[in-house]
Amino acid sequence: MYSFDPTEEQQMLVEAVGKYAVNDLRTAAREAEETRELPKKLVSKGWEIGLLQASVPEAYGGFGERNAVTGVLAVEEMAFGDLAGALAVMTPSLFATPILLAGSEEQKQTYLPRVIEGEWSPYTAALIEYTFDFDPNALKTTAALHGEEYILNGEKAFVPFAKDAGSILVYANLDGGTQGFIVEKEAAGLTISEEREKLMGLNALPLYRVRLENVKIPAVNRLGGAAGHDFAPILASMQLANAATAVGVANAAFEYSRDYAKEREAFGVKIAQKQAIAFMLAEMRTEIEASRLLTWEAAWKLDTGKEDAWTEAYLACTGAADMVMMVTDRAVQILGGHGYIREHPVEMWMREGRGFAMFTGLAIV
Amino acid sequence: MPIEFEAPKPIVQTQFVLKTVAEEMMRSRSRYFDEHEHEIPWDYIEFMHTAMKAIGVGSLAPKEKASGGEGGNGKRPPIAYQVLASQIEMLSWGDVGMYLVTPGGGLGAAAVQAAGTPEQKAKFLARFVGEKPTIAAMCMTEAGAGSDTASIRTRAVLDENTREWILNGEKIFVTSGDKSITEYEKLGKGFVVVWASIDPSAGRAGMRAFVVEAGTPGVKVAKLEHKLGIRVSDTASISLVDARVPYDHILGSPTVEKTTTGFKGAMATFDATRPLVAASGLGVARAALEFLKEKLAENGVQIRYGLPRQKLTSIERDVIEMDIMLKSAWLMVVKAVWMADNKKPNALESSMSKVKAGDGGTKITQKVVEILGPLGYSREFLAEKWFRDSKITDIYEGTGQINRLVVARQILGYSGKELR
């Protein structure tokens, strides 16, 4: 059967996230962007909603089951408030969710309770690399087995909270495929940049460059244990998160510019009463819907184990990256000169909008 | 029910059958009827009629009983519009022009279904399960009133003595108008639903629909159009000169109040039918995209899904973009008809699906011809025909621009006056 109604629990969760996104994340967003600082309290409050906790079974300290549909519903809503804040709140998922999906029993027992019980703490993951043709399935960072250890070499970019993280899940190329490795902070040869990354957007989110020079890690720290893991479901979950957050940011820009157009007068009418503006808004809303539904379907396919789930997640992610650029650009255009001024949030969303073409790896559902 | 995308079983089953029909009865005749405009595909019509009779449906029009929900066993959610959208998509994948010639009530019956009383439904819809294939149509557009339906000039005046409506006017662009009112030997008696004003001073509030039977004196086909595509489907001008119609053939209230319920009746029909037209357009687009992929595969061109865009070839990017367009547009159609089935107001979703499918369908078919080069442009293959056929999706049942207007009014909370 087809159905487009979220369950009651999903609705309640989305509502809780929505409240936090609008009342807390959105109100703090501009200052956080300018000062490059997210208040700790803000992040803790988001963490307490329990998105990640609700996706981990009781046996590992959580109180639910992981569900990608619930995930995309929630992260869209979170990103609607503010992308940088949303990504900060969800950073521990980057470490925990792959362990939940692909970790060995021992890894689940060891790490999951540690991450999800108690306060938000900076567990993170490193996927992205600083190269124009970055491909998560063909990483330049390498891993090689030497006896009982893996040796990791390479450089990772855009790693959230790396400076403070106790453990980082580092993705590397092992015999041509992508595998995750749990790297502890103390590991010799691991260097985290002093300076934070300086990007066009996401200035509130502390991102770092991470270097690995002959970093030796015990073989048991390979994600999934000795046999390793399938990377496809992890990548798909990242692509879904990227698509859903793109929809959230696009929707924020759409609603803001729509409301502005209903207030702003020109030639004696509201500018929203001009077809030139009204049609732009109609197309923005249509494309948001298109991306949202494709993301939902891909998430549902992932949950139900459909064989084309990976392709669908890729398509949803690719489509959303185009969509959010179009929508945020138009939002700025609708506000005109005011859109270009940093008093309004649309210019920030437009800078973030371009980023979704390369943000895969900064969030996971 | 939680969010789910599993096609209901009845859809999966009919898709299998319809695919065979599309291949055997439609694709094989596509080119012939494209080049022999106004010839009637009798074998397709008769085949479809026999087939639908055999499975107990008279037409593709949704039937509440057959779909569960009200009047059904009440346990399963209703899916009639979802089934219909899938059928239309598949038949249009076969040949969209020929799909339009499928016997049954079409938009005419849809109007009766949406705005008729139970008595009217019984009276007018029974014929579609009769012995002969029967066709009905909707007459809305006039020379001076396309999407601006409120400027319709056709008049309906009540003759107080005979209690008959007298209709005068000229309708154009009536899909299947000829097969609905011309009395062909092989067809049952059809009808057209004519939109006319019972009070021009009342504007939209005075607009009503009338069921005009085939054979009504004063009603005739004035012209058959020659078109860019969908040539197997007749597009007729129908003139009404003192055409007398029984009193109870009016759909909706015969009196004019200060409201626009009558007009809204027409618009409600569009809410139901727009996603169906969108589905039709997407069937054509899917045909084109699949054909392109076949040709690329034959020539050893692989589409490397999963690769970052910086590493993709231009053709790969185009194909992936078309995949995204087609898939997401289809989901918008599914959502809109799912809402219709579940009696949720869907004016916004319905028009959005039409905007997306109109855009997507034309872009995809245009791109496919471009990528295929001479193979695309040649009449040896069907790509060029699909390009011509698909353009109509962005025009009929509300142009892309009208649907943008509907979407804009919905999202802005504006009336027709506030956003013209």
List the SSEs and their pairings.
The complex is a heterodimer of chains A (365) and B (420).
Chain A lengths: L1 E2 L4 H28 L4 H10 L18 H14 L1 H20 L2 H12 L7 E3 L15 E5 L2 E12 L6 E8 L2 E8 L5 E3 L14 E12 L13 H32 L1 E2 L2 E2 L4 H29 L5 H27 L1 H4 L5 H10 L10
Parallel strand pairs in A: 2-5
Antiparallel strand pairs in A: 3-4, 4-8, 5-6, 7-8, 9-10
Helix pairs in contact in A: 1-2, 1-3, 2-4, 3-4, 3-6, 3-7, 4-5, 4-6, 6-7, 6-8, 6-10, 7-8, 8-10
Chain B lengths: L3 E2 L3 H27 L6 H13 L25 H21 L5 H10 L2 H8 L10 E4 L15 E5 L4 E12 L1 H5 L9 E7 L9 E7 L5 E6 L10 E12 L3 E2 L9 H38 L15 H28 L5 H26 L1 H4 L5 H8 L9 H13 L8
Parallel strand pairs in B: 2-5
Antiparallel strand pairs in B: 3-4, 4-8, 5-6, 6-9, 7-8
Helix pairs in contact in B: 1-3, 3-7, 3-8, 4-7, 7-8, 7-9, 7-11, 8-9, 9-11, 9-12
Describe this structure in words.
The complex is a heterodimer of chains A (365) and B (420). By secondary structure, chain A is an alpha+beta fold. Chain A has helices spanning 8-35, 40-49, 68-81, 83-102, 105-116, 232-263, 275-303, 309-335, 337-340, 346-355, and strands spanning 2-3, 124-126, 142-146, 149-160, 167-174, 177-184, 190-192, 207-218, 265-266, 269-270. Chain B has three domains: 9-103, no CATH class; 129-259, Beta Barrel (Butyryl-CoA Dehydrogenase, subunit A, domain 2), CATH 2.40.110.10; 262-412, Butyryl-CoA Dehydrogenase, subunit A, domain 3 (Up-down Bundle), CATH 1.20.140. The radius of gyration of chain B is 21 Å and the shape is globular. The model of chain B is unreliable at 64-73 (pLDDT under 50). The two termini of chain B are 39 Å apart. Strand 1 (2-3) of chain A pairs antiparallel with strand 1 of chain B.
